[in-house]
Design goal:
Bound molecules: BIS(adenosine)-5'-pentaphosphate, magnesium ion
Shape: globular
Low-confidence stretches: none
Order of helices and strands: EHEHHHEHEHEEEHHEH
Structural class: alpha/beta
CATH architecture: 3-Layer(aba) Sandwich
Strand content: 15-25%
């Protein structure tokens, strides 16, 4: 299984990819998660990425393409992957196609998560993430059993730097300008499948399974 998850910030890509990667036994490669780990660890990659991320801009293509090339070339990606939040520009999509060709692999589908802008704002400003295991919560729609504490690992929940309202609006604008053109890019290549990203998490997961299964 080799699938890409495409959609605006807050569409639920990470929520779904985390579970489906486990179910399909494939690598979950979320470029945003890799970058946040690098920022937290203070590595060279993190230092480069932080300024872009904090203002809701995209990290330069060459940095992202290098990172993905390294991860998808590794042994744990040989059985398949979900790329979550990548590609995000036409240049990234073209580099991704070259990389897959070099690896002798085919992309099964790109899943587009369709969610209204009002819902995205609500989700992002209420999102909380576990520092320990990365699991995602929402203050009202999927709160933890104990406020501020992860149900699964007991880790502390925090709000992402870029989930404040002004930055969220910028991320949505950047998405529309730089990433939304990928819908046509993948539609033209007959690789795009669309699911509604609104409704219960389990129902959306079922729709993704069905759409990817039907497309392969
Ligand atoms: P990244 O981490 O990829 O952020 P994003 O694309 O902006 O998307 P999010 O992670 O915010 O949303 P999501 O779709 O994963 O939603 P989630 O499942 O968490 O990127 C961050 C930054 O890194 C970028 O701005 C950029 O600077 C940089 N970057 C990353 N990749 C890059 C690339 N390829 N190129 C260049 N730069 C890059 O859900 C959101 C909330 O909604 C949660 O609270 C969740 O509980 C809730 N929720 C989920 N599903 C539902 C549902 N069905 N109903 C109700 N609530 C739900
Ligand atoms: Mg995410």
């Amino acid at each position: 299984m080799r699938v890409g998850f495409l959609g605006p910030p807050g569409a639920g890509k990470g929520t779904q990819a985390r579970e489906l990667a486990r179910e399909w036994n494939v690598l979950h490669l979320a470029t945003g998660d890799v970058l946040r780990e690098a920022v937290a660890a203070g590595t060279a990659l993190g230092l480069t990425a932080k300024g872009y991320m904090d203002r809701g801009a995209l990290v330069p293509d060459d940095v992202i393409i290098g990172l993905v090339g390294e991860r998808l070339g590794a042994r744990d990606a040989a059985t398949g992957f979900i790329v979550d939040g990548f590609p995000r520009t036409i240049a990234q999509a073209e580099a991704f196609a070259r990389l897959l060709k070099d690896l002798g692999q085919m992309l099964d589908a790109v899943v587009y998560f369709d969610v209204s802008e009002g819902e995205l704002l609500r989700r992002l400003t209420g999102r909380r993430v576990c520092k320990g295991c990365g699991r995602t919560y929402h203050l009202t729609s999927s709160p933890p059993k104990r406020a501020g504490v992860c149900d699964v690992c007991g880790g502390e929940l925090y709000q992402r730097e870029d989930d404040r309202e002004a930055t969220v609006r910028n991320r949505l604008e950047v998405y529309g300008r730089q990433t939304a053109p990928l819908l046509d890019y993948y539609r033209q290549r007959n690789q795009l499948v669309t699911v509604s990203g609104e409704g219960p998490v389990d129902a959306i997961r079922g729709a993704i399974r069905a759409a990817v299964g039907a497309h392969r």
